[in-house]
Each structure stands twice: as C-alpha cells, then as structure tokens.
Specification:
Strand order of the largest sheet: 5-9-10-11-12-14-13
Number of helices: 6
Distance between the termini: 49 Å
Strand content: 25-35%
Number of strands: 17
CATH architecture: 4-Layer Sandwich
Mean pLDDT: 87
Length: about 350
C-alpha cells in the first residue's frame, strides 16, 4: 500500500532541497487528504493512481504575489542535469553540471524551471547528490519548479515517484501542477511520461488551466520533458524525435493559441542540446544542456537556432520587460578550462498579444 498525502498550499515557494518551505505570504488554507492506492511492482507510470479530486481545480496550484517579486521578473529554464555521484563521468559531466548550478545562482533568478531528468537514476542517493550540488540555490532561496523526466521514473515508477515527492514534498501526489508567478507569468509543468492525448485526465486538466487563465496573464510557460517540436533526426538519437503523445499537445496548443490572450512558450529537454522553433504562434524550446552527455544533432531549416556547436552545455534566461519577454541562451564554452567562459549564443524576444 502506498499512502499519498496532499496539501493544498498557496502563496508559497520552496527551496531546492525541499526540506522546508519558505513562506512569502499567509496561508489561505491548509488541510490534508489521505488516500490508499493499491500498487503493483510491475505497473507502468501511467498506472499510478492519481485521484481527480486531488488534482488542481481551475486556477493555480501555487501562487507567488507581485509583492514578493521585482518589477522586472527573471526566470531560468534548463534540464537534463543528471545529478549523480560525480565519479560517474559517463552519465554526465559533473564539472559542467556544477558550473551551471553556480552560474545560475549568480543570475539571482526569481524562479528556475527544470525540464526533467534532474537525477540520473530515480534513487534516493542521486537526489542526495542533487541536494549537495545545489546548495548555492538553497542559500539564495531560489524557487525551483521541476517537471518529471524519464530518468525520474528510471526503474520502478512507484519508487521513482516516492523519491521525487520526497525531494519535492510540496508536489506530493502531483505529477503536474501550475504556478501563478506574479500577475503576468503562469507556469504549467506537465508529465510527458503520462497520457497527453485528447480526453486524457492530464489533457482535460491542462485545458481547464488554459480556459481559466486570468486576463492579466501575458505569458504561459508549459514545461515538460519530451519535446513536442524538435529537429527530426535520421542518423542518431532517432528515438528522441517527437512522439505522438507530445505531438497531440502541439496540436492542441496550435488551436488554443488562436483563442488565448496569452502567448505560449513551451520548454522541454530530453535532447541534450539547444533548439528553438515557432509553430502556429507558439514558441518551442529544447533545453537539455544541463550536464548530461551532449547529443550531436542535425539541424533542420525550421530551427531558429543554427549554431554548429556539438557540446552545448547551457541555460536559458527569460526577463519580463513590460509586454516583452526577452530570452537569452548562455553556453558554457569549455567545462575543463581553468576559468569558465560563458558565451551568449542566442537572443530572442516574444511580444505579448
């Protein structure tokens, strides 16, 4: 039996080790609901029960008021760090991983959105390594909002989810959630390990979130691990091409974008490189350069970034400036260099409707 505990909390942000909440406003309400769910060892991630009444109703799961944010809000996105024992240099580059964490801390972002594959494996030990290496984030009290990747459910998905919820306890019994980050930014993290096709419980929840957006929201970030849009590969890593599950999300967003007052920005990982696209007015970014072994990719003409770098450890910073969202991709040139060199390799602007 697995006991799932859910707490409805609002106006809070959390530290990366999730051992304590940093409160930025008063509780509006707090209560716990307990359910027992029968599980079997061989069940898939999609088999894990998630009672509909425990999922977010229309409106944000968490909120951060404008009073707790600067006038010019900043957000960093990246993924595929694969935190694990630093002696394991096959799974990831531990030096690049640490340099990126330290650099992001110096950026002093208002939030960091992780696009999945935070641990290399789904073990408690790898989450211990995550906590140890992200002490600078804890020190800076950075808000961390993770999405589930495939490595979070690397072995037994029940064990993987238990360890993920232990690392991020405020997400307990949630695999997808939303955050109102001030009046103008809305974050939605979804689970691409689960069904995203029309009529699925997750798609119905997402549609409800989009339908009930506040009129003040200018930009909606949708974070997930597997990319809905990417450079189609034919020589290598072909199993990382967009799948029908995420293509269904892309098709939904193409329709929703025509009706919405907000601009949609979809950020994903899985491909250990950087890519940028625009489809039907929606911006799609792949940011999987957090430390995992880089992938060499063949860029298509649709990719708005045409950099030739094979090794692309990087992160993306977004700055909200009035009705404009400015994006900057910063690349770590050589993790082995005596002094790290940071290169701005891509800039773009998304304008509110």
């Amino acid at each position: 039996m697995l006991v799932l505990v859910h707490r409805l909390l609002t106006f809070h942000s959390y530290n990366p080790d999730m051992s304590s909440f940093t409160s930025h406003s008063k509780f509006r309400s707090s209560f716990a609901l307990f359910i027992l769910a029968l599980v079997s060892i061989g069940a898939s991630a999609a088999d894990i029960p998630s009672a509909p009444f425990l999922l977010s109703q229309p409106g944000p799961t968490f909120s951060v008021p404008d009073s707790e944010l600067p006038k010019t809000l900043s957000l960093i996105v990246y993924g595929d760090m694969r935190f694990t024992d630093p002696v394991n240099t096959k799974a990831a580059n531990p030096q690049a991983r640490r340099l990126l964490v330290d650099k992001i801390a110096t950026e002093r972002p208002d939030a960091v959105l992780l696009t999945g594959d935070v641990p290399y494996a789904d073990t408690a030990r790898d989450y211990d390594d995550y906590r140890a290496e992200t002490v600078p984030w804890k020190t800076m009290k950075v808000r961390i909002y993770p999405a589930l990747g495939n490595h979070e459910l690397h072995s037994d998905p029940h064990v993987g989810l238990k360890n993920w919820w232990t690392a991020f306890p405020e997400l307990n019994n949630r695999r997808w959630y939303s955050v109102q980050l001030g009046k103008h930014i809305y974050l939605i993290n979804i689970d691409s390990n689960d069904d995203l096709t029309e009529g699925s419980r997750q798609m119905l929840w997402l549609q409800g979130q989009v339908a009930h957006l506040s009129k003040s929201v200018r930009f909606v970030f949708i974070g997930l691990h597997h990319p809905p849009v990417a450079d189609i590969q034919t020589r290598s890593e072909v199993d990382h091409n967009p799948r029908p599950n995420e293509i269904a999300l892309r098709d939904y967003l193409s329709k929703a974008a025509r009706k919405s007052r907000a601009q949609f920005v979809v950020v994903s990982g899985h491909i250990h490189n950087y890519e940028r696209f625009e489809v039907a007015g929606v911006t799609y970014l792949v940011s999987g350069g957090g430390g995992a072994r880089p992938y060499e990719i063949d860029r298509t003409s649709a990719d708005l970034y045409q950099g030739s770098e094979t090794v692309n450890f990087h992160y993306i910073r977004f700055d909200l400036d009035g009705r404009q969202l400015r994006g900057t991709m910063t690349r770590l040139a050589d993790p082995a260099a005596a002094a790290p060199e940071w290169q701005v390799k891509d800039r773009f602007v998304i304008t509110a409707r």
